[in-house]
Amino acid sequence: MQRNGVMECSVCHSKVVAGTPRSISRAYDKHKSKISSKQRVLTFLLVSGDCVLVGLQPILVFMCKVDGKFQFSPISVNFLTEVTKVFFAMIMLMIESRKQKVGEKSLLSVSTFVQAARNNVLLAIPALLYAINNYLKFIMQLYFNPSTVKMLSNLKVLVIAVLLKFIMRRRFSIIQWEALALLLIGISVNQLRSMPEGTKTFGLPVTAIAYIYTLIFVTVPSFASVYNEYALKSQFDTNIYLQNVFLYGYGAIFNLLGILGTVIFQGPESFDILRGHSRATFFLICNNAAQGILSSFFFKYADTILKKYSSTVATIFTGLASAAFLGHTLTINFLLGISIVFISMHQFFSPLAKVKDDKPAGTLELGDAQKHSHPILLL
Amino acid sequence: MQRNGVMECSVCHSKVVAGTPRSISRAYDKHKSKISSKQRVLTFLLVSGDCVLVGLQPILVFMCKVDGKFQFSPISVNFLTEVTKVFFAMIMLMIESRKQKVGEKSLLSVSTFVQAARNNVLLAIPALLYAINNYLKFIMQLYFNPSTVKMLSNLKVLVIAVLLKFIMRRRFSIIQWEALALLLIGISVNQLRSMPEGTKTFGLPVTAIAYIYTLIFVTVPSFASVYNEYALKSQFDTNIYLQNVFLYGYGAIFNLLGILGTVIFQGPESFDILRGHSRATFFLICNNAAQGILSSFFFKYADTILKKYSSTVATIFTGLASAAFLGHTLTINFLLGISIVFISMHQFFSPLAKVKDDKPAGTLELGDAQKHSHPILLL
């Protein structure tokens, strides 16, 4: 007989206090809330940083236009962004190395660099995939109109979740899968208003080649993000700026190879990568670079799904801000869409939706971080 | 120390097998699954019956038209439907009374009838509210276009949930509230396609009188349904067909008063309630009546929310059937809308979403039914 956590010994009939499930769960809850408050600060910093950078983007793009046109070749922007990211990461690495205590292994020593390069060779894979993705974006526009491309991009969130499940062994509850589906649906409902009249019916292309391109277009960037998360987390001991140097170094190399490829096919004028750039384009490239560096923080210290939600929230804030300050009307699609996105977000991160397990799914990455006794907030 | 459910007595050190939380929860799960399997059969019968009747509706409406027009006055349909329901309930009552065992109190005795009439006087309230609602539908069309009326009707599901919370003391988890919001959003997304071009922006009316009409239009039928559920359940011992005789008897009286009112204001020609009726309109009225009787089963043995979901599923099936058999194209709005509705439905009825309580929220009504030792399936 067990009553109020007190059991009676069936042999000597004395009372024994049992560790009731409730008292065990309370102790665990305390431990959990400690972790999740740190995770919440990290999440807040990452998401608000992302919102600021994504919010600045359209303003910078607008400033870069001369007579409504871009003077520079879009292909050069990718390469210059990668180079900027490498420089930024190296500057941060120098700042970090000055803060190092005496006796710590120097971040700038050749041996650290060589060992990190050897350990982080996996980062070449996401770098290659990102470079391929930049080219795919151009090809896709030959087969689909821009709104269809936007719609299809939404499918990425589900592909990312499936890849996270298999590559990162993340477990999602059924409510979380539904939340991800709702995120996809919410963004789509919001985008419906921008669909041209003719595409009102479900205008999916029917040619086989278009299906294959869609599959590649959705899978490649998703795989890049998830593999990036895997590569960054698997070498948790390597400083994140050092990892960035390799990731974006590889990226710069692959983009340069791409430019050389176009030079061979289209003639030498596409080699002039600095043509048409101004101070405005410099800021645009810096913003792009900062977004890239911030993503690596998302991937290493949080996860790809949080990055997706963050971008969506940033888009919503941009929409609300342009309604408040520029007097744009909020369409019913926008209102229905953001309601779905906010419900989705609440459900995905709700403790109710967490997979029932010793280690809650949401704090898995942080658990890893603590195992490696690393500081969580390097921002 | 407790290990594998075996505890050691701290006094005599003998081993005691503890009732582990898992074994207790297993026993409870068995008890729970017994209830919910009966509830599932009931739900299936109610929802599939509802789908058939709602699916037949547009076909019957089409058959009732002569040269694309209705020959009968729509106001007469409500009255004739109420009268049909009373007749149907009385026939069922006679069939039930024949099945009665010797010694049971006769369903058809005057004393049973008088006592039930006294106990179920509350049913006059939903009957009056339903009658008022039939008039409001006409008034609303003066202030809003039909698609706006349809959109506003969706708000009913949230009002119903709030009323259920306060009148029936039902408890909903946060996931269930979100599921209800998603149901509302899903139906709205589906309806967006049928919005005329001009109403693409959020075209809510701004006049104060329109707001008041909207409030009444949404609250009256919601209050009618929830109060109907309350009245039917509170007199659980009264046979449901006897309750129906009173509910629809009151309904017929209120509708007749309405007809008399229009006779006074518009002249005697609106009194000819049988004008323009044919065999097709007879079937339409029978279908309406059957839907009404079925609702009373929803309200008494399940609940108003299940009725709402059921109607939505019926609409979806009608849409899918018309796509499959009549070759209509499925719009992207329809596909997004039904995805939201199905996720909402799964979340609302998911055991994960249930309020943490000794008695799970979904089986509350069945618990009541068993307490009164009544047969569950009277269909």
From TrEMBL, chains A, B:
Show the coiled coil region(s): none
Q: Which Gene Ontology terms cover its molecular function?
A: pyrimidine nucleotide-sugar transmembrane transporter activity
Indicate where this protein resides in the cell.
Answer: Golgi apparatus membrane; Membrane
The membrane topology noted for this protein in its Swiss-Prot or TrEMBL record is: Multi-pass membrane protein
| InterPro entries named among the record's database cross-references | EmrE-like, Nuc_sug_transpt
Does the record's keyword annotation contain Membrane?
Answer: yes
- Transmembrane portions of the chain: 41-63, 75-95, 174-192, 204-224, 245-268, 280-302
Q: Which UniProt keywords apply?
A: Golgi apparatus, Membrane, Transmembrane, Transmembrane helix, Transport
One GO cellular component assignment for this chain's record is: Golgi membrane
Q: What does this protein do?
A: Sugar transporter involved in the transport of CMP-sialic acid from the cytoplasm into the Golgi. May transport important nucleotide sugars such as CMP-Kdo (2-keto-3-deoxy-D-manno-octulosonic acid) in physiological conditions.
Q: What does the similarity note say? A: Belongs to the nucleotide-sugar transporter family. CMP-Sialate:CMP antiporter (TC 2.A.7.12) subfamily.
Quote the protein name from its UniProt record. CMP-sialic acid transporter
Q: Which organism is it from?
A: Triticum turgidum subsp. durum
Q: Which lineage?
A: Eukaryota, Viridiplantae, Streptophyta, Embryophyta, Tracheophyta
